Amino acid sequence: SMQDMSQRIKTMRDVLRDKLVALGTPGSWDHVSQQIGMFSFTGLSKAQVDALRDQYHLYMTDDGRISVAGLNSHNIDYVAQSIDAVVRSTVG
């Protein structure tokens, strides 16, 4: 149902935020879980988006918008770890 899909997307937002926080990824990630809809602005720069694409084969719009609907229990760890690695390599 639409309600189930909406709840799954909200859960994936929360899980992504929780994983980034648990990894100690620099920055604040609360905005990921506070947004609604199938897409989320990550706050990543174009350089970070390019690095995610080139190094980790993760694709999102140049402004850092990611499809939350594409996240699931099988890829969420990889996505969080990849974001963490790219953010750490480009901080400062």
Architecture blueprint of SSEs:
Blueprint lengths: L1 H22 L6 H5 L4 E3 L4 H11 L8 E3 L8 H15 L2
Antiparallel strand pairs: 1-2
Helix pairs in contact: 1-4, 3-4
Radius of gyration: 12 Å
Count, helices: 4
Give helix % range.
55-70%
The neighbouring-strand order within the major sheet is 1-2
Shape: globular
Strand content: 5-15%
> Largest sheet, if any?
2 strands, antiparallel
Oligomer classification: single chain
Q: Which stretches of 5+ consecutive residues score pLDDT under 50? A: none
Query: How many strands in all?
Result: 2
Distance between the termini: 44 Å
Given the helix and strand composition, which structural class is it? mainly alpha
- Write the H/E string, N to C: HHEHEH
Query: Whole-number average pLDDT?
Result: 94
Task: Provide a compact summary of the structure.
With 92 residues, the protein is mainly alpha-helical.
Explain what the structure shows.
- Strands 1-2 form a two-stranded antiparallel sheet.
- The model has no long low-confidence stretch (mean pLDDT 94).
- It is built from 4 helices and 2 strands; from the N terminus they run H-H-E-H-E-H.
- Helices cover 58% and strands 7% of the residues.
